[in-house]
Amino acid sequence: MAAKRPSTPRPAPWRKHAFFIAALWIAALVAYSNSFRAGLAFDSQRVILADSRIQADTPENVHQIWTGDYYNGTGSSALYRPLTTLTYLWNYAVLGDGPDAGGYHAVNFALHTLNIALVYLLGLAVFGEVWPAFAMAALWALHPVLTESVTNVAGRADLLAAFGVLAGLLCYVRSGSSGAAPGNAPPKAMKTAEGGAGAHGVPSGPSGPPGPARADPPTCPADGAVGRGRARWRRPPPSACSRRRAASC
Q1: In terms of domains, do 190 and 133 share one?
Q2: Which of 2, 83, 105, 187 has the most CB within a 10 Å radius?
Q3: What is the DSSP letter of 210?
Q4: Is the same domain home to 213 and 244?
């Protein structure tokens, strides 16, 4: 008998996805490369230069950030964004960026790249194929609608809120594809991550005082869980969906 030829090891799937994510990051870096030279403009001057709470890393300042509003008395505001302000404190006092805008822009771009990766992973979970997920993430990475959120330091609130929404949605979709039988509760770890990510978006932004947050999945069309391999969304019949909604009211 002929000896079996040794099989060539196949590259790990994560390497392919890492390549696509890296390509998206490079494209975003090229698009936003000139933002690192931008200064502190518009609301960024109020939340960085005029906010004394972020200029020293002290327990008193942290307490004031958690109990005060976003603009700290520099203007009429009902915004509550303590997590966003804490990142400004981290830039100003911990990293030593002070009034230098370069470090703030770098953190904004890093958050944007993190959201790009989340959109790509969400696309994989929804479509089950690389190219639709890549196109979805590329649209997020390069669409002009996100320019202000990335290039304006004060746009960090939008980036952090987007992270909470994307991470919570990804956890929810992944919990539906974890192999549990339809109707069974998703794993506790995934449910905890989903709730934590959703709660993260409340004190980050983009606007409004904090309110009660719910991490409950939607009633319809949640019955169509994402299956293994290629994602298949199976919506229940309209009549059944309508009956469920009527019963939940």
Answers
A1: yes
A2: 105
A3: -
A4: no
**pLDDT tens digit sequence for 176-210:** 765 554 445 555 555 555 555 555 555 555 554 44
State whether 113 and 226 are in the same domain.
no
Q: Which of 168, 138, 162 is nearest to 148 (CA)?
A: 162
Please indicate, yes or no, whether residues 41 and 85 belong to a single structural domain of this protein.
Answer: yes
Which residue range is the domain that position 230 belongs to? Answer: 218-249
Of the pLDDT bands very low, low, confident and very high (cuts 50, 70, 90), residue 25 is very high
3-state secondary structure 98-153: CCCHHHHHHHHHHHHHHHHHHHHHHHHHHHCCHHHHHHHHHHHHHCHHHHHHHHCH
Helix, strand, coil percentages in the chain from 3-state DSSP, rounded to 5: 60, 0, 40
Do residues 103 and 116 both lie within one domain?
Answer: yes
- In this structure, are 53 and 89 located in the same domain? yes
CA distance 129 to 65: 43
